Amino acid sequence: MSLSNAAETRATPTTPDNLKNTDFDVFAFTGDGTAFMGKVDTEFGHDGVNIVYNNGKWDYKNASDLRYWPTGALDFYAFNPGTVSEDMMMNYMWEASGTVQKISYTCIDEYGANTGHANYDVMYAMAKGQTKDMNNGIVKFNFKHILSQVVFKAKTQYDNMQVDINMIKIHNVKMGGFFTLPATADGTGSWSDPADLPSEVSGLGKFTVVKDVNITVKSNTIATDISTTTPMLNRPQELTAWKVSETATKSKLEADNAKQCYLEIACKIRQSGAYLLGSASEYKTIYVPFGDTWEQGKRHIYTLIFGGGYTDQGEAVLNPIQFDAETTGWVNAAKDVNV
Fold first, then answer.
1. What does the alpha-carbon distance between residue 104 and residue 248 come to, in Å, rounded to a whole number?
2. CATH code for position 233
């Protein structure tokens, strides 16, 4: 049997060029749900037949896993990456049967955790109703991302301003959950929260965009890059911005209790050389309400327009930051490689 691959594009996004550096685990089921490759897996784990890129082609990692086409049709499901480092075993798991296929994923705060490990650009692929007479017996996989990619840039509000950024974090985001594969290959699948936790408290945490840096922003027309080459990979979700103007959520602590989202930014702000925030020797922290909807398989690009923010008590510091936001597709990257 041959397997072939066409992948979409991590905190190294997977592209056609580096796809061969990944691997994936495959399941195949007959029409009645019998496992033909892998097993009927109803508990989260790391099962399946491992496929790797070796000697210029996609191949079975273990020769004993080799399968030949049966007479009937098969439904194929693949999970990428297929190899999981020991410290990520509980963060990334999957299960597959003939009727339900799910991925359990919990993001890590890569820069904040100091683990030296990165999030996975988790992808899935499916090819249902395949027979040996289709595509010359080659199973074509089109991998799709289950996470959202989030990056930042920055500009100043005025042309005589300069901002020096040391750290940016996003607070009160869902770190993970369960992704259920769609019924058909052209569907989108869906995210859900762990059943034993109510939605509003399921694994909320904070993500570090950048830390221990000194990024200087001094143009109000050309955006300065913050993290476009080091994107965050996040669970798709709707973020509710800190409602700093409402009495009930005036302070940062009240925003935390209400599960409202905001940026924490350590920076210095100067105008015509004079410090408006911080000093030559000290960064100051401001907070900025942040809300949007992160979509599966999309790259979200935010340009911070620096003027100021709020204190942890919700008092304005200079002119609060505004945003320009855009969303781009995470491009499909066709790749056909015969095993």
1. 35
2. 2.60.40
